[in-house]
Write a structure and sequence with these properties.
26% strand, alpha/beta, Double Stranded RNA Binding Domain, 8 strands, 8-stranded mixed sheet, 5 helices
């Protein structure tokens, strides 16, 4: 009886070890860490744009591999979700820092000059980062006609995110902030063992660097810096208007 219990326990342990790990899902959420009082600065936040960083891959593919599927998933799905998440979380950060947000779908064509004069800065966010996959593939053909495809390699993210604070009237960039993937340790290659593992590792990597990315963005936006920039803009305009 005791032997049966031991065997049963061993079976359960082995089953638990062999049970497949659930696939990770994209988790894009950030909560601002600080709340400040209002500062009377009005900002127009535009939808982030995705430039589609060039895929830099090393491949020996004969069949579809991670260096095919990961860029496709990222471009067709994840990049859109990143755009939406970054816009939502930027709104939360700006509100938490005390800024007032204006609303407009197109800051250049939908608003009149009088409307734009009420806005201090327009924010343009450029997503210029993407996956970099180095894949080695072996394809085995058996006499029975079956084919086994094996992939192994590394996945990382390279590029940067750029935030521009633009004068809405002159359309001149006043302040620009850049966060690189290197500063988030997202460019360090992570090894994978097959196609599914590669896609899971790419998702896990985004989940890992996303809160770090928003933390750096939050820390980079300084109320004092924007107030000083507004003073400089006003001084320059006053000098221009008073010049003969």
């Amino acid at each position: 009886m005791r032997f049966r219990v031991i065997v049963g326990s061993l079976v359960l342990v082995l089953y638990a070890c062999a049970a497949p790990k659930p696939a990770p899902t994209l988790n894009l959420y950030y909560s601002p860490t600080v709340r400040a009082q209002g500062n009377n600065i009005t900002i127009l936040l535009t939808r982030p744009s995705y430039t589609g960083s060039q895929q830099l891959s090393v491949s020996t593919n004969k069949e579809i591999g991670p260096d095919d599927t990961i860029p496709a998933i990222y471009t067709n799905d994840y990049s859109v979700r990143l755009q939406n998440a970054i816009q939502t979380d930027l709104e939360k950060i700006l509100i938490a820092k005390g800024f007032m947000l204006a609303r407009s779908s197109d800051p250049w064509s939908d608003s009149t000059s009088s409307d734009m004069s009420k806005i201090d800065f327009t924010i343009f966010t450029i997503i210029d980062f993407g996956p970099q996959v180095s894949n080695y593939q072996r394809v085995l053909h058996f006499p029975t006609g079956s084919v086994v495809v094996m992939n192994e390699g590394t996945v990382a993210f390279t590029g940067s995110l750029i935030i521009k604070f633009v004068d809405p009237l002159t359309k001149k960039t006043i302040i620009a902030k850049t966060v690189t993937m290197a500063s988030l340790d997202a460019d360090n290659p992570i090894e994978y063992e097959d196609l599914t593992d590669a896609e899971n590792k790419a998702t896990e990597l985004i989940n890992k660097f996303y809160p770090r990315l928003l933390t750096k963005i939050e820390k980079s936006i300084s109320t004092d810096e924007l107030l000083a920039a507004l003073t400089d803009i006003k001084t320059h305009k006053d000098k221009t208007q008073s010049a003969p």
